[in-house]
Amino acid sequence: MLEIKHHYSHKTEWFSDASKQIGATLLNSKISVFPQNIAQGSSYYLPIIDGISAVLFDAKFKKDVVINRHESDDDLYILHFDLSNTINPLNLINSKKESINSKFKSGFSVLHTSLGSTFRPKKNQRVYVLRILIEQKKLINYISEKNNSLKNIEKKILFYNTLNANNKVLINSLKEKSMFDVGFDLYFKGISLKILANFIDTYSHPVKDEIRKIEQEAIQHANDYMLNNLYENFPGILFLSRLAKMSKTRYKTCFNKTYKDSPYNFFNKQKMILSKQLLSGGNFSSTNEISKILNFSKHSYFISKYKNYFGRDPLIDLKRKNIINNL
């Protein structure tokens, strides 16, 4: 088993040292390309603004790896988001290298650099983890002290919760980008700041517990149905509200609070993202095929919707993939 040891700071040295341990190729001091015998993929470290940075991890491991983050005095909070195919377990470690909690699995966690942690990415699956590092004084100044959910954060103790729906959409949009794309720096920075803003807004202006815990779960259930049925037509507000066991009015209100959008618009946006994936997958010879498989009533309507969302004709993206395949 390969063991990687590191600690977080806002300096790039920790990233460079961790890259050397795994035998990765470091590009421009920010992209770490893993060796093919260990993993297929890379990681990306980026300073965002003063006191805030982010690290992105996107890889499929071929060998067992354990990543031990040692405690440090940098006084940073770590916002940990895991959108892997299967959430990977984390384990907190104290200064005596003793486990102080059982392994837990959560799509979203907040850690502190005063406690170390062990992260074991699973083999043969896509591991996609985003971590935002923020100075303690900045975060404490942002969030409301009245929010009981964050009392543990102020004591530098683990806090975890379900992944915010808005942040899940943002991170999924990041998953569609390549770290080697021109302008990825700007996109990564923008997404990280939006995610941080959502986190701060959520815990500075917390909604009632019964809405966040009960109705949010119902909204998520209906939302999962939509995401699993993007090849079909929009299921309708009546169907979704019944699925969530809410009135139509209450369902639309809760959905809008959660996603800052209507269910219909959300469904169509996700459908457009799926269409782009299909276009770039190289499995179709025409945009008409994709419009049919996605159940658009007319090919022209699909083209119009795609142009409105991405600002270009879908044929352009199909050509790009075909050109790459023919090289």
UniProtKB/TrEMBL annotation:
What is the designated name of this protein?
A: AraC-type DNA-binding protein
Annotated source species: Flavobacterium resistens
Q: By its UniProt entry, which InterPro entries does this protein fall under?
A: HTH_AraC (IPR018060), PchR_regulatory_protein (IPR053142)
Q: Which UniProt keywords apply?
A: DNA-binding
In its UniProt record, a GO molecular function of this protein is: DNA-binding transcription factor activity
Q: Where is the HTH araC/xylS-type domain?
A: 220-320
Question: Highest taxon of the source?
Answer: Bacteria
Taxonomy of origin reads: Bacteria, Pseudomonadati, Bacteroidota, Flavobacteriia, Flavobacteriales
